[in-house]
């Protein structure tokens, strides 16, 4: 198969776009897609400062790479959760972030070591609190959201960018639709604006790009990342939903993208407007971040007894 744009052999074929490209034109296409999403959804402008949450995985390192290539002012944030369990997951992923940054002069980043700052690693907190029993992921999500928001705000960044790709977004949407969790559905978007209560603007420049496309980009451009999934992700519902969606995509290429884009159109038409009505937020009495119940926020309650 030949590249659509030149005579070189195609290295990557995207059935859902009926497009095959070579090793030069594929990365170009990929970067242009991200740039288009940034502009289309008004994620951030060239003069704004962006904080990229980098996990050491392919999506977030690809995102950081693309934003730097496009000339955006993008710094990294790595949250060290202290996940060890014999595989040294956190240490290994942190190393990937450090290696990535060492090769690029403009890639500056902050590390937040959860144990050093708050007293316990994620597995330790998850064992101690009821919320975490058997499911560290829920506590992990809470910690990551809090830390990301804090660093974005304290560092004076205009937006927080995460590496969520189309497969991630579609799996979450699918799960929420299965249970008709309309409140969550209403709050799923490529951009969440900053709120008066101190929540930072959140953006997902890769929300329209397939996981396969991310993998191809990192492979072709030589970005080294951590292949392992977090050990706690095994058996996660979102992974099962991804499996179902992959089978549908296999039979009918483009299913995921259509599902997501149709959702965004429905959302734009205020299909979920009642659900989108803001819940009342209060500042946490300890950290000041917005919380729905007056008093301590869920994050600060985690550490009350440490
Ligand atoms: P996940 O929740 O693992 O699916 O990751 C979703 C996004 O959150 C990634 O693409 C990153 O942008 C960000 N992220 C996940 N883990 C970390 C981490 N340990 N430090 C910084 N950002 C992270
Ligand atoms: Fe948070 Fe796995 S990365 S529990
Ligand atoms: Zn080509
Ligand atoms: Zn708090």
The SS-based structural class is alpha/beta
Would you identify the regions where 5 or more consecutive residues have pLDDT less than 50?
Answer: none
Portion in beta strands: 5-15%
Bound compounds, please?
adenosine monophosphate, FE2/S2 (inorganic) cluster, zinc ion
Give the class-level CATH name: Alpha Beta
Give the mean pLDDT: 94
What is the β-strand count? 10
CATH architectural label: 3-Layer(aba) Sandwich
The percent range for helix content is 40-55%
From the 3D structure, determine the CATH topology: Rossmann fold
Strand order of the largest sheet: 5-4-3-6-8-7
Write down the Rg.
20 Å
CATH superfamily: HUPs
**Bulk shape:** globular
Question: Count of helices?
Answer: 13
Domain tally: 1
Helices and strands, in N-to-C order? Answer: EEHEHEHEHHHEHHEEHHHHEEH
